[in-house]
Amino acid sequence: MELQQNQEVVRPNPFPYIIAILIVIILIGTIGIWYYYPSTVWTQDEAIPRMLVNDSPIDSQTYIWEDSSLLISLDYVKEVFDPHIYWEAETQRVIVTTEDKVVEMNTDQLTAYINSQPVDIQVPVTVKDDKPYIPIEFLAPLYNIELKKFASGIAAIDSLDKPTLTGLINKNTYLRESPLTRSPRIIPLQPEEKVIIYGETNGWYKVRNSEGYLGYVDKNHASLQEILVHMPERSSKKTAWKPTGEKINLTWDYMTRPLYDMSSYKPITGLNVISPTWFHLANGEGKITNHGSLPYVQWAHSQGLQVWALFSNSFDPDITSKMLRSSDNRKKVINQLLVLAELYNLDGINIDFENINYDDKDYFTQFLRELTPLLREQGLTVSVDVTVISLSPNWSMVYDRAAMGKIVDYIAVMTYDEHWRASPVAGSVASLPWVERGIVRILEQVPAHKLLLGVPFYTRIWEETPQPDGSIQVSSRAFSMSRAEEDLKKNNASIELDDNTGQYFGTYELDGKTYKIWIEDEHSMRQRIALVNKYDLAGVASWRKGFEKPHIWEVIQEELTKKP
Q: DSSP assignment, residue 177?
């Protein structure tokens, strides 16, 4: 017997689902219409930028107006236009340096100075809330910028070293705050209206119209026109002197007094620059000690030599600090150098500042920025001496080599002393591997065409004396090439090639002491000059004249003129 039951099939009611789908469609449609239908809301007037730099609004606290003259805060100028603009709070003075100009502006004074020549300005540097503000129109030619003032009350600073893309509005539309149709309107745009186009975002152009208003316009409502390239004014920058088709071959000529009798000076093979050690900082106020001699320069010029007189800081960190930290004292030094250069008919100045307080690093760089344009204006070549890179604050870390490489014409790298006079161990003045490593490291900061390889014409004789406690007392004396050779011969020294230094090494025993010399000669010099060619450096600088063997000049000339 089979049990049968009637079962009723229950079907779901579709009506609630239909309603839900319709609601979703309506919501999507409403959102879509809202999103894509252009907004009719207008931007609030106070939200419209009144000061622009290219396509970027700047905060109202960044600038002030004095009548019709615009002043920009020094902090903003430093951030955007000139990282090297210099403010000296003590004297309330602004100093701007370029490759060929030094501009000085004093607070509340309507006279500025360009390369020491007075120039009238419409509005002075102004200090507000302890912040200096700079008359930007006066500096506009230096920064290659242009200030535009619009009838709308908007102003814009445009960089003239960038190409400008222009466009044309092709229908009635609106400039909007952001790249969205729902973004508030800023101002109507008419057909045939010209705009500057700064970029594209999601189908919208970022533009500025002829009244200075900045915003966005639908890409379909504008057409590209042309790219305008602003032709910069010709720079008055003078190119650095270099011997035609040759490398620079410079030697420093050490002297402690003026030399007027040049009868003992003979022609030097291959030399083209001589640097007498004439000028020295005497005190912190900027006084310079002078050992210059006009007959010396006349002799050098008769030999076809350039004269780059050396100016040192006397290796005194205290007077150096006092001079560097005062713009008045720096200016005093610079003016003296300009006068001395003209007096002696010099061709260049070589700056040899050593043993500088690390805290004065930026002041030294600023000094070079202020000095170089004025020397160049007088037709002088500017060079500076630096040590190899090391961890010594006063003797190496104080040099901002990368910045110097952008300021001066040449940098002489003193690739010595690897082992100095008071070194606790005997060693080479400048072993070849050590020299090459130093050059490679500095080439990461300074271009090769500005580097001179400093080479030693001297060596050290090291004296090692055994002590009762078993230790070795080490002392040394600097010898010229010839004197070192004589000492080795006199004492029948054992001489062999030292593969570790790339030099010949001599040693002998005398009175229970051991004497060692890493020899400077033709062999070591050929290898040093080979580095000039290997890395295509500007040339060589030797310390110092009178310590070399006469034949060394021929060796240097031969190596410098070798073709790759």
A: S
